[in-house]
Amino acid sequence: MPTTLEVKAPRLVTALPGPNAKRILEQDAKFMSPSYTRDYPLVAKRGHGAIVEDVDGNAFLDFAAGIAVCSTGHCHPKVVSAIQKQAAELIHMSGTDFYYESMPQLAERLGRTMPGAEAKKVFFTNSGTEAIEGAIKLARYATKRDKMIAFYGCFHGRSMGALSLTASKSTQRKGFGALLSGIEHIPYPYAYRCAHGHTGETCGAEILEQLEGQIFKRLFDPEDVAGIIIEPIQGEGGYVPAPKFFLQELQRICRQHGIMFIVDEVQSGMGRTGKWWASEHSGIEPDILCSAKGIASGMPLGAIIARESVMRWKPGAHGTTFGGNPVCLAAALATMDLIEGEYKENAHRMGDYLFGRLADWTKNFKIVGDVRGRGLMIGIEIVRDQRTKEKAADLRNLIVDLAFHKGLLVLGAGENTIRLSPPLLIDQEQADFAARTLEDCFREAGKKI
Ligand SMILES: Cc1ncc(COP(=O)(O)O)c(C=O)c1O
């Protein structure tokens, strides 16, 4: 009989949460910061591939991947072995003050993945928010300007600089006082809810007019703007892709005014959409690209990748003690091998398969308003009424909870969207299980209207 982790589909052996999980939930409530946002009581113990086992021996199919982090699945043997080997050799040195080979090795490989003929330079961080924080500083440093433009709905992190760019949920800002000044937010091109009635590829033209006609004329002279930052596919905001023309036009505007074009690929990058970077689908060449999450299969690592002519700050201008730690870099090198070798292609193939499988959902389920995304970054927007598009946050939350009780881990995004961000190694059987389970959940939730 296969062990729990060798199965490819969920296997539930207790009511949820089970007895061991209940004990840990009680401890957690006593000792942990209440700021965490757990949707359901999964208490994880081990993972393998796309399967996670909890502390009571229940096995779940993981379509959340630790918020799009475990790109190569849980504990891929090649990643584990790279971590173990590196941990036995050198755990820490601090790349700010000393050299080690994996730094330029990984930087060279990452630089090659970023579009654009110019050579690239890389700064390593511990997280996504630190990559964004560094990108703000780099854009200011490189341009000698201080204003920034960001988008409503985008999430860039929670440290004070990144939080100043984030405009996802007001709870993320409430109570923290003044943030960075000199930042304006403009609407994100959200085709399903386009304020001007455009669909798909044309949504957003008026936003660009607002940027050039209003923001640049009435608020910020474009020559004072250091950077425009955008997620090519909104993550936390609801898995909303920006149209190709919109990203291309933003790039044109940036180039015209000497503004840094910064893409936040923390969630959408590292092969998740079937290419290294989601922005590649639009043929753009950003000046600065931020990565983290899937880059090291769960080890804490982020990266700022920039055109060589942009990353010219002087020694001491920016640094970090832990960022680019040798163990994280070893995990990242193994992760890149796996993504390059097969998982990027698998994300493309399984994404196409899933989109084919989900194509009729808006016809078959009246609570499904929209299915969107690319590769294995898929958003399903839940509405009370397809005609009015009334957001159904309660039904979305119910579906996420029902899926958990059927052995499928998914997360919400935005106010009323379910996000699917599985490890990039899922197979057709697992994709089918997830689709069937969600269909069951939609039927159950649909009865509540
Ligand atoms: C697009 C994006 N940028 C930045 C961040 C912040 O990353 P971290 O949580 O590693 O600080 C996130 C995290 O969800 C993200 O999705």
Written description of the protein model:
- The chain has twelve helices and 18 strands.
- The protein is α/β, with parallel strands linked by helices.
- The strands form four sheets. It has a seven-stranded mixed sheet, sandwiched between helices. Strands 13, 14, 15, 17 and 18 form a five-stranded antiparallel sheet that branches.
- Helix 9 (326-358) crosses helix 12 and helix 11 packs across helix 12 (428-446).
- The longest helix has 33 residues, at 326-358.
- It is globular.
- It binds pyridoxal-5'-phosphate.
- Pyridoxal-5'-phosphate is lined by residues 67, 127-129, 132, 155-157, 231, 235-236, 264, 266-267, 292.
SSE blueprint:
Blueprint: H1 19-31, E1 44-48, E2 51-54, E3 59-62, H2 65-68, H3 77-89, H4 102-113, E4 120-125, H5 128-143, E5 147-151, H6 160-165, E6 183-186, H7 205-219, E7 225-230, E8 233-234, E9 240-241, H8 244-257, E10 260-264, E11 288-291, E12 302-307, H9 326-358, H10 361-364, E13 368-374, E14 377-385, E15 390-391, H11 393-405, E16 408-409, E17 411-413, E18 417-420, H12 428-446
Parallel strand pairs: 3-16, 5-6, 5-7, 7-10, 10-11
Antiparallel strand pairs: 1-2, 2-3, 4-12, 8-9, 11-12, 13-14, 14-15, 14-18, 17-18
Helix pairs in contact: 3-9, 4-9, 9-12, 11-12
